[in-house]
Amino acid sequence: MKPHEHAAAFGTLDGELRLGGMPLSRLAARVGSTPFFAYDRGILDARVDLLRAALPSRVELSYAMKANPMPAVVQHLATRVDRIDVASALEMQAALDSTIRPERVSFAGPGKAPAEIRQAVAAGIIVEVESTTEIKRVIAAGDELGVTPRIAIRVNPDFAVKGSGMRMGGGPQQFGIDAEQVPDVLKHYASAGLDILGFHIFAGSQNLNAEIIAEAQRRTVDLVSELAEYLPTPVRYLNLGGGFGIPYTEKDRPLDLEAVAAGLHALIDGPIAERLPEATPVVELGRYLVGECGVYVTRVLDRKVSRGKTYLVVDGGMHHQLAASGNFGQAIRRNYPLIVGNRADTPVDENATVVGCLCTPLDLLGDDVELPLAEIDDLIVIFQQGAYGLTASPTAFLGHPAPAEVLV
């Protein structure tokens, strides 16, 4: 997708990008300083509505908070989704402070500290255990607190998902218990005072291929159906993971959600209904829910030409948005879509390279980008910034102020 296509999703007014219906320059004045992240509530709601309309009604939506833990975003999504997934004690507290009930919060991730596990067990959160060590810690916490812990087994499947930005299943992994080990684990801990609800399998992230996602979901259901024979009770929780991708570069095409939904409808009406009738299927999404609702806005501090190449130096950079610099999972660096936000309708008339204010050549936000002529104080807007932005970046590097975040 091209930058102007992303801009069209937000809209323009008198040549300026609009965010939450507000002209960019007015929003920047209201925020008071650049850089800042802005998340558009309308686009966020539209994405939830799109998913609700496409996916089977039996499928529950879980928000993976790691994608964007901004409190206002979490509070808003808590009113729109069925569940929230957390990966730390801080995220856990944010979820518990929302309107989501504790039993609808799941806690995943390798290396959970004993204190975090105790907090989760005490709150009644589903602990998605990733090793036998974690199972033992959950049991100890339950014994100490006098409660029955609620857990799901995170499984490292015996298949890998091609085309994912990051592979998180198949082969050796720090994530989950290897599928071939799960039967013995269940036999050993079936009578250990645990409420084992079911399974979580998440094989990969940022996938734009609907056929691959559908195949992974089919294989996940087949695997869970086999493992269900070793559970002392029927499977009640079937976390199919997510991995739905969004387009970041011009060569990317949006995920065919209807094709993914068709595969899920077939699974719900077929093997899940037949083999796992008491299971609640869950699709856990982070990036796909919030990624496209956000922008990063940064101001041009300097314009310079070095040996024929034009540089726009901005007051932001990779310390706020590591992914856009290409240093967060890109094998080959490609530009994220960006525009001069206060000249959104101005024709392109130069190629410029947008760099941040840090003392490293890695601080590159846009390389040789086609832009209208940009001057000092113009506002550069980078799209697809609703996920894995501020909290996935090295904000302490060089001691620059943290950017603001606003939900508009």
The CATH architecture name of the largest domain reads Alpha-Beta Barrel
Which term fits the overall shape? elongated
Helix content: 25-40%
Tell me the name of the CATH class of the largest domain. Alpha Beta
The percentage of residues in β strands lies in 15-25%
Uncertain residue ranges? none
3D structure, described in words:
The chain is of the alpha/beta class and 408 residues long. The protein has 2 domains: 3-39 and 291-407, Beta Barrel (Lyase, Ornithine Decarboxylase, Chain A, domain 1); 101-285, Alanine racemase (TIM Barrel), CATH 3.20.20. It is 29% helix and 25% strand. It has 11 helices and 22 strands. The chain has helices at 3-10, 24-31, 41-54, 71-78, 89-96, 114-123, 132-145, 182-189, 210-227, 257-275, 287-290; strands spanning 12-13, 16-19, 22-23, 36-39, 60-64, 83-86, 105-107, 126-129, 150-156, 166-167, 177-178, 195-200, 204-205, 237-239, 280-285, 294-306, 309-314, 338-340, 350-355, 364-371, 379-382, 404-407. Strands 4, 16, 17, 18, 19, 20, 21 and 22 form an 8-stranded mixed β-sheet that branches. An 8-stranded parallel β-barrel has the order 5-6-7-8-9-12-14-15. Helix 6 (114-123) links the parallel strand 7 (105-107) and strand 8 (126-129). Helix 6 packs across helix 7 (132-145) and helix 9 (210-227) runs parallel beside helix 10. The longest helix is centred in the middle third of the chain and has 19 residues, at 257-275. The radius of gyration is 23 Å and the shape is elongated.
